[in-house]
Every structure is written in structure tokens, then in C-alpha cells.
């Protein structure tokens, strides 16, 4: 399974994370917004679609750049998680899908309960926060 996810930058080196809804897969864990890449779409198209569905924002492909990736097992499934940096977007970020959203610096992200694979993304995110 390939998942496209977004690193959305906020003020002061913070990044947007959302809390996965109660009752579903990995409920209550904090994640980068995004979702599965469907068979008939590319990863950036999937990201654009998911961010519209989950956060109500519009992003353009030219504002999206690869940041890092991680791979491993997510429960029984083999997962490839592609994390993209999203430089800018239109509209206000709204939690349409998540139980909660928040802006966190990388030290705070490291202390959140996340899917295991997400911790592998943090080194690149720290570097990006400094840059
Ligand atoms: N969006 C996202 N998913 C992640 C992250 N880390 C991680 O292990 N995952 C896993 C959780 C899920 O098994 C999978 C994403 O699938 P999902 O169920 O959220 O995706 P979706 O929005 O396409 O879901 P659906 O249409 O099937 O409801 O990737 C992350 O940081 N962001």
C-alpha cells in the first residue's frame, strides 16, 4: 500500500498533525494528513484529493515537493509512506475528518502517539524545520 501524506508548515517551525478518528484503523494516533494512493492516480493527485477531503484546503502540484519517505509494516500490511512538503495552500485548515488537529514543533511531535512508521520521518522534518 502506498500512502501520500503532507507536511504542512505553520508558524515557528510547527507542522500540522491530525488525530485519527475513533473507531477506525489506528484510532487516536496522530498522523500527517493524507491517505492511500488509488490504483488510477499518482501520489500528488492523491495528496491533492485527500487534503481537500480531510482539511478543506486546495493545493497545487507546483507547491508540492518530496520531503522524505518511510516504509515498514502497518499492522498486517506493507506500507510505503511518501511525505511531501506543501509550501502553500488556499482556504482555512479545518478538521473535516480527524478528531482533532494541531500544530506541533518536532520535539512535540516526537512525544505524540503516532503510527510506528511516522517516527522514521522525524529526522528529515527536523532538518526541514531548521532550513
Ligand atoms: N494519512 C496517513 N496515514 C498513515 C500515516 N502513518 C501511517 O502508518 N499511516 C497509515 C494508516 C493507514 O493504514 C494508512 C492510510 O490509510 P487511510 O485509511 O488513512 O487512508 P484513506 O484516507 O485513503 O482511507 P479510506 O479512504 O480507506 O478510509 O496509512 C500518516 O502519517 N498519515
UniProtKB/TrEMBL annotation:
Keywords: DNA damage, DNA repair, DNA replication, Hydrolase, Magnesium, Metal-binding, Mutator protein
Annotated signal sequence range: none
UniProt xrefs under Pfam families: NUDIX
Cofactor: Mg(2+)
Name of the protein: 8-oxo-dGTP diphosphatase
Record-stated family: Belongs to the Nudix hydrolase family.
Nudix hydrolase domain ranges (all copies): 1-126
One BP annotation, GO: DNA replication
Lineage top rank: taxon: Bacteria
InterPro entries, per the entry: MutT-like, Nudix_hydrolase, NUDIX_hydrolase-like_dom_sf, NUDIX_hydrolase_CS, NUDIX_hydrolase_dom
Keyword DNA repair tagged: yes
Catalytic activity entry: 8-oxo-dGTP + H2O = 8-oxo-dGMP + diphosphate + H(+); 8-oxo-GTP + H2O = 8-oxo-GMP + diphosphate + H(+)
PANTHER family: 8-OXO-DGTP DIPHOSPHATASE, NUDIX HYDROLASE FAMILY PROTEIN
Species lineage: Bacteria, Pseudomonadati, Pseudomonadota, Alphaproteobacteria, Sphingomonadales
Enzyme Commission numbers on file: 3.6.1.55
GO terms, molecular function: 8-oxo-7,8-dihydrodeoxyguanosine triphosphate pyrophosphatase activity; 8-oxo-7,8-dihydroguanosine triphosphate pyrophosphatase activity; 8-oxo-dGDP phosphatase activity; 8-oxo-GDP phosphatase activity; metal ion binding
Amino acid at each position: 500500500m502506498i500512502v501520500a501524506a503532507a507536511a504542512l508548515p505553520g508558524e515557528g517551525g510547527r507542522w500540522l498533525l491530525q488525530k485519527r478518528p475513533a473507531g477506525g484503523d489506528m484510532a487516536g494516533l496522530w498522523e500527517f494528513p493524507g491517505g492511500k494512493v488509488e490504483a488510477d492516480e499518482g501520489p500528488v493527485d492523491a495528496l491533492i484529493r485527500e487534503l481537500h477531503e480531510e482539511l478543506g484546503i486546495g493545493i497545487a502540484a507546483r507547491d508540492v515537493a518530496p520531503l522524505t519517505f518511510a516504509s515498514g509494516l502497518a499492522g498486517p500490511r506493507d506500507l510505503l509512506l511518501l511525505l511531501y512538503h506543501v509550501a502553500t495552500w488556499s482556504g482555512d485548515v479545518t478538521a473535516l475528518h480527524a478528531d482533532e488537529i494541531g500544530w506541533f514543533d518536532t520535539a512535540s511531535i516526537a512525544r505524540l502517539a503516532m503510527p510506528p512508521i511516522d517516527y522514521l520521518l522525524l529526522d528529515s522534518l527536523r532538518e526541514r524545520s531548521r532550513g
